[in-house]
Amino acid sequence: MKPSRAALLLVGMGLAMPLAARARPVVVELFTSQACAACLPADALLASYAKNPGVLPLSLNVPYWNSPAWKDPDSLAAATARQAWYAAIANSQNVYTPQTIVDGTVALAGADAARLETAIAAARAAPAGNVPVSVKGGAMVRITIGMGSGNANILLLGFDAKRVTHISGGVNRGTVLTEVNVVRSITSLGPWSGQEMAMSMSRPAGRHMAVLLQAGNGAIIGVGVD
Predict the structure, then answer these.
(1) In this structure, what DSSP letter does residue 38 have?
(2) What is the DSSP letter of 35?
């Protein structure tokens, strides 16, 4: 098949071709809490994808379960805001834990293994999500985004690959909980409107980083991970 003019342009600019970009990981966001008893099976399910190169699992610990009995040390107000945004664009008031969002568009119960696998397979088969995105970091973070179509918001997430917590209070008291890719920071970097762009900034909280290019309807159309 003869490559398109757009693909040739991307190659000439030293950017990944769309075909390679479509191999980006499927983003699986789990809204969870260490103070939620029902969340433990969902945490374990998410952790089972940690070594799957085709999936980027992210734990977003919400603070609305916190109480004097147990305050989740990884809870993040920005996680609650993100979950509320997903509910708003779906015209829903149904916010709960554990809740999983697959590639920004499919919501399901966090411990539903069968539906999660089906949603991941459908996301892999979808043609959307082919904008090249890369993120590299030392003391400073450099992000590059290739050309594409449409409009989206650029999000920088800092996360820790593994967090082990000895829970000493609340309903999960006595549990040693292992969570994967725990999000420590969420930063909006502004809009993207289809043009190639690059930016640099200070490194956020978290040992690793992910850049999500996310459309207004929630669809994730580009992912970069470092």
Answers:
(1) T
(2) T
Tens digits of residue pLDDT in 4-18: 333 333 333 333 333
| Dist CA 211 CA 136 (whole Å) | 10
Interatomic CA distance for residues 184 and 57, integer angstroms: 14
Q: What is the pTM of this model?
A: 0.88
Q: How many domains does the chain have?
A: 1
Question: Cα separation of 89 and 86, whole Å?
Answer: 5
| Distance set, CA 16 to CA 19, 23, 150 (Å) | 8, 11, 18
Stated length of the chain: 226
In a domain, 142, yes or no: yes
> What are the C-alpha distances in Å from 151 to residues 7, 132, 142, 155, 189?
19, 14, 21, 13, 13
pLDDT band at residue 82 using 50, 70 and 90 as cut-offs: very high
Strands (E), the chain: 26-32, 55-61, 99-102, 106-109, 133-137, 140-145, 152-166, 176-192, 197-202, 208-214, 220-225
> Residue 217 is part of a domain; what is its CATH number?
3.40.30.10
